[in-house]
């Protein structure tokens, strides 16, 4: 379902990905383990084209992420939920507003439907009482769970976790 073919990426003159090849099948849990700076986050960012390989290609199903643009890239990205290493919450939005953001941006759901989905998702990650708080008002672990809630609120086909056990 996700396939890296001879993917190479150089950052700051240093090869970070040097001919990476792997395949992840549907339903499989796949972990990338390595030292700090080994390219784990860079690999994940390539899957959703937040970064583009210098060489090689990345396939998601039959779609070539490494060359996709515009509506095609948006369609591919919609298959993913992404939990960023730092949770990447918007500081000026409440926890619930952060979780609702993808629903408001990409769906024509009613406000009642959005709020119901956000409540359900926050409950799944144990933050049902914290939706009205700003990210600065909750702990690092709670921010990570809020980021997880945002990543899964749309029930994505694929979920990427960057440093899932930190925080």
Notes on the structure:
The chain is α+β, with helices and mostly antiparallel strands. The chain has five helices and six strands, in the order E-E-H-E-E-H-E-H-H-H-E. The chain has helices at 40-47, 70-77, 95-106, 111-124, 140-152, and strands at residues 2-11, 14-24, 55-60, 63-64, 80-83, 158-161. The strands form two sheets. Strands 2-1-3-4 form a four-stranded antiparallel β-sheet, with helices on one face. Strands 5-6 form a two-stranded parallel sheet. A hairpin with a 2-residue loop joins strand 3 and strand 4. Helix 3 packs across helix 4, helix 3 (95-106) packs parallel to helix 5 and helix 4 crosses helix 5. The longest helix is centred in the C-terminal third of the chain and has 14 residues, at 111-124. It is globular. The mean pLDDT is 92.
């Amino acid at each position: 379902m996700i396939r890296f073919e001879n993917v190479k990426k150089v950052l700051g003159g240093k090869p970070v990905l040097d001919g990476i090849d792997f395949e992840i099948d549907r339903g499989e849990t796949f972990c990338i383990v390595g030292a700090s700076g080994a390219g784990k986050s860079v690999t994940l960012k390539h899957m959703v084209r937040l970064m583009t390989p210098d060489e090689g290609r990345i396939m998601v199903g039959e779609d070539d992420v490494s060359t996709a643009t515009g509506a095609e890239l948006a369609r591919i990205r919609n298959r993913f939920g992404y939990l960023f290493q730092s949770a990447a919450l918007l500081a000026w939005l409440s926890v619930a507003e952060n979780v609702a953001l993808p629903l408001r941006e990409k769906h024509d759901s009613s406000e009642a439907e959005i709020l119901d989905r956000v409540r359900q998702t926050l409950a799944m990650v144990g933050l049902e009482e914290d939706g009205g708080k700003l990210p600065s008002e909750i702990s690092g672990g709670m921010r990570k769970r809020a980021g997880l809630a945002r990543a899964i609120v749309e029930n994505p086909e694929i979920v990427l976790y960057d440093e899932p056990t930190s925080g």
